[in-house]
Amino acid sequence: GFCTTLLLSQTSERILARSNNKTEILCKLTNEHVGVYWYRWNQERQKFEFLVYSNPFGKAMYGTNITQDKFSVRGASSQTSYSLYINNLHVTDSGTYYCSIFQSFQLFVGSGTQLSVVDVLPVPLKTTQTPHSKKKPMQCITKSRVGDKKGACSLLVWVPLVAVILVLLLSLVPIAHRLHRMRRRLWLRIHRQ
């Protein structure tokens, strides 16, 4: 019988691939093993189809009507991972693929990888984001703070303005004094003649 186990795992739960391309399904084993079987669950026929068996030496045994051009298996030198390669994908290749090992007269099956083959890959939706502003964030000001702000703002404007006016007035005092002296001299000259 078939038994799910922690002895082996498949890295991708789902793969979406485009037709005429190729894909890889990875199977990892917790221990070294003498070989891995690959099956596909056919939803239409409601049955498992044997695809290929591969041993660590690269020898492969294929199922009925399964060709080496379509399916190939490569194992790591550690004999703890095997990859199933599916070439020239068609929509009919869609299904759930399982790697499995035979141990103690039982076939232990991995978690499965659901492969969906489509003619056109769906375009991911673009999420619109508001552009980040470089301006400083706005502050909330309470009514009491508004009055303080106005006062501070008016002081910041009026104090320098008054200071400038005072400086101008003080600079006008000597000029006015000179004008007054010149006027007096002129008046004296006129009256002497």
Automatic annotation (TrEMBL):
Ranges in coiled-coil conformation: none
CC per GO annotation: cell surface; membrane
InterPro entries with a match to the protein in the record: CD8B (IPR042414), Ig-like_dom (IPR007110), Ig-like_dom_sf (IPR036179), Ig-like_fold (IPR013783), Ig_sub (IPR003599), Ig_V-set (IPR013106)
GO biological process, one term: regulation of immune response
Keywords: Adaptive immunity, Disulfide bond, Glycoprotein, Immunity, Immunoglobulin domain, Membrane, Signal, Transmembrane, Transmembrane helix
Superkingdom of the source species: Eukaryota
Chief site of localization: membrane
Keyword Transmembrane belongs to the record: yes
Entries under Gene3D superfamilies matching the protein: Immunoglobulins (2.60.40.10)
SMART domains: IG, IGv
Annotated PROSITE patterns: IG_LIKE (PS50835)
Transmembrane stretches, start-end: 155-176
Domain Ig-like: 4-101
A single GO molecular function term of this UniProt record: coreceptor activity
Membrane topology field: Single-pass type I membrane protein
Subcellular location: Membrane
Protein name: CD8B protein
Annotated source species: Chloroceryle aenea (American pygmy kingfisher)
